Amino acid sequence: MSDLISPLIGTWDEELIADVFWPEEAKHILSILLKPGYEDSVAWHFDPRGVFSVKSGYHLLEDKREQEKVRQTV
Known about the structure:
- By secondary structure, this protein is mostly helical.
- It folds into 2 domains: 1-40, no CATH class; 42-74.
- Helix content is 47%, strand content 0%.
- It is built from 3 helices and no strands.
- The protein has helices spanning 14-20, 23-30, 54-73.
- The longest helix is centred in the last third of the chain and has 20 residues, at 54-73.
C-alpha cells in the first residue's frame, strides 16, 4: 500500500490510484485517512471459523452495501 502514497508529501498519490483502480475502488481507497508516524497493522474480517478468505471479504462488502442501501431509503 505504501506505493500508493506520495513519498514527498505523505498523502495518497491520487493520480496513480485513479490510473490503477476502478473509480468506485479509488473512492474507497482515498477515503482512508493517512496518519503519518503510525505503523500499519494487519486487519481482516474472517468467517465464523476464524479464517479469512476472499469469500468472507466479499460477503462483508456486500453486507456493507446492503446496509448503505437501507440507510438511504430511511
